[in-house]
Amino acid sequence: MDDTIVSISTPLGRGAISIVRMSGKDSLKIALQVFHCKGEIKPRFLHFGRLKIDDGLEECLMVYFKAPFSYTGEDIVEFQIHGGILLTQKVLETLLKNGCRLAEPGEFSKRAFLNGKITLDKAEAIIGEINAETEGELNSSLKITNGKLAKKIFDEQEELTSLLAEIEVSFDYPENDYEEIVKEKVFDKLKEIKKENDNILEISKSGKYLKNGINVCLVGQANVGKSSVLNCLLGEEKAIVTEIEGTTRDSITESFFHKGVKINLIDTAGIRETEDKVEKLGIKKSIKSIENSDIVLFIHDGSKKSGSENEIAKHLGNKIVINVVNKSDKPRRLEKLENEIEISALEEKNISALKDKIVSEVIKKEISPNALVLTNERQIEILEDCDKLIQEVFALQNSSLDVIAMIIKKIWNKLGQITGNTENEDIISLIFSKFCLGK
Question: In total, how many domains does the chain have?
Answer without folding.
Answer: 3
